[in-house]
User: Fold this.
Amino acid sequence: MKRLCNIYLLLIVLFFFTGCAGVRDFLGDIADKIAEKNSEKAPEGTKVLPASYYLGKALEYEKKDELQTALFYMQIAGTLNPDSTKIPEKIASLNSTIDHKAKQHFTTGVEFCKKRRFKDARKQFLTTLRYAPGHKEALNYLKNRLHPKEYLNYKVKEKDTLKDISKKFYKDPSKDFLIAYFNNLKTDKKPVPGTFLEIPVLGSEFTRPPIDIRIELIKAESLLIEKRSQEALDIAEKILEYDHLNKKASDLKNSAYYQIGIELSGQKKYPEAIKMFKKVTPEYQGVKEAIQHVINKELVKANNLLKEKQYEQVFAVAGKILEYDKSNKAAEDLINTAFCQQGKDLIIRKNYTQALNVLNSANPQYDCVKKTISDVYKAKKKQAEAHYLKGVKHFLNEELQSAIKEWEKTLALNPEHKKAKKNINNARSLLEKLEKVK
Amino acid sequence: MQQFVNRRKTIFGIIFILSLLLLAACATSTRSRHKTSEIRINDDFIIVKATAKDTLSSLAAEYLNDPSKGWLIAEFNHIKSLTSGQELCIPLFPFNKGGLKSGGFQTVPVLAYYSFSKNKPSKISITQDDFKAQMKYLKENGYHVITLDQLLGFFEYQEQIPEKSVAITFDDGWISVYDIAFPILKEYGFPATIFIYTDFIGGGKAMSWKQIKELSEAGFDIQCQTKTHRNLTVLKKKESFKEYFKSLEMEISYPKKLFKKKLNKECKCLAYPYGLTNNLVIAMLKKHGYRAAFTVDKKFNPFFIDKYKIHRSAIYGKYNIEKFKNKLSVFQNMELK
Assistant:
């Protein structure tokens, strides 16, 4: 009785301190512990349907190929009948079937993906997921890889600028701000090589050039027929800016440059004509012949200039020819002939130093160059001798000052002239003695 | 002495009776417990026997901590209601997140409404009676109108939703949604999402911020439909690409900030004006933290749909109930074996 009173008192105290909930939980915990104790003993203590019922259900779902549901029921049956040895075996077998089927369908799905049969692939991945709801790779295909992406990934190369990348993807360098925006970059800064950028995929309506290429091509063709080559060229280049692979625009560009070259050639502006012809692809019909024709004209011009002793102009014209055609023998001959002639002229003018300077710029393999250089030295020697004799004459006439001047000229032309050296010394000492006598 | 003992007995007797009364009072508020007749299977399932007092909702409250999840128990056990003594298997996890079956997969119709009228239907305006009839049809035919979060949970393969799930959305922010649709939805206990373009708010036929706030507080999901309702996919006349881009950024970022400021709620979804979108718009939505976006393409919505291209069926004013029923496809047949 006393013990009973104590329990009631405890309950009342508990009630006053914690209210209904406290008492409820206290009693609940006691009840839970009793229940747990019971369930630990044996599940058959509870009044539920027998394990065979759930086993039957599992087999029913297995037949319908609803393997996950079959597995659920099988696990329930296993818990209700822990002594069964068959159920764990059946569970293992079901798990193995599920794994096998999931793997099989996933592999088939990947194969379909590779063949770009996306509808078939989707069906396979869905089947995979039905068998194995936690199959992450199948889920990834379904949720991500089978959907078109709104970004493309691009690995930045050395020297890439955002404008280069924009031109590459959008055919428009001015869309660099778009790449900068989606990659948290600044347009005036170069992206770091090796990093990956997300490039938003734009629909054709935004990457389409602000010109109608078809119409522009027709316009350019008409302009070319009207010989308005520069205008045709401008259009062709504009088209190529947006579509650098456009064959028609490329052909038009070649034709326009060719036509401009012909026009300039007609105006005898040969160097300018050659410049234009050089912009035409070498395979373009007639361009090689046109270039040769202009070069020949330039060679004739250079020859005439040579006859007129306009050596500097010969060098300029022939030099230009060599710029376009490095192996042009005629132009090289002309240049060296001009050097020789210029050398000869300088010999006549007794300007031997200048003559040698000019000839040193020429190709020494040329016979005329070799000969003219030799002529320079001969002429120099001859001239030195003439000055020497003149000096002797002055000496005999007792004109010592004049004699010294002539021998100085001799030595300037030929520093090794022994007689001149000796005589000049004698003349100078005589002059000194005469000064002293005076 | 005997008298003292008798008095003590009387006092304890009174205390005993009082305590019994108190405990009895407590007991009446105690939830019904199934512990003695339940079996736990690997933390995944619980087998219980329903008592006469049990409902699917009470069992869901007891075991799943969510009374609205009675459907999960019903669907697993293939039942519609409970009978006393019935043995049930309660799944403690979403047992079929994608709604996949050997014969196909689950799809969710998302209905798009615009405005309402008392009795004059037009293309985008539905009469009060028609809307009521449509909601009644959903209720009576076992459809579950789910919330935006449930829908996103399903698309993200995180959450299982009832087999017959439907989502309701409203576009633009017409005042008739507040005046006509809101009371009907409240009556049926259906949740809904309202996509509003902010420049419309407070206009002649539009809801005011006060009304929007009221709907938000009543549990309606308020989401964005841009600032001006411009077509997000095309350049305006004489608009440069750069101007278009700047405009897109404003259309997408501005409403998000405004809703945060006015309603203190995160705008996580967007309905495309005219239902139209492109890659650039989607990239922009992702950059600004939107989780999903809605078109008005009439196709079905399985769990693996692109979340930025969720389909919706526009419900027009002159639809009869038969036409409405056709929009409620919840399963797509496909042999998944």
Notes: Chain A touches chain B through 56 residues (CB under 8 Å). Strands of chain A lie at 151-155, 196-200.
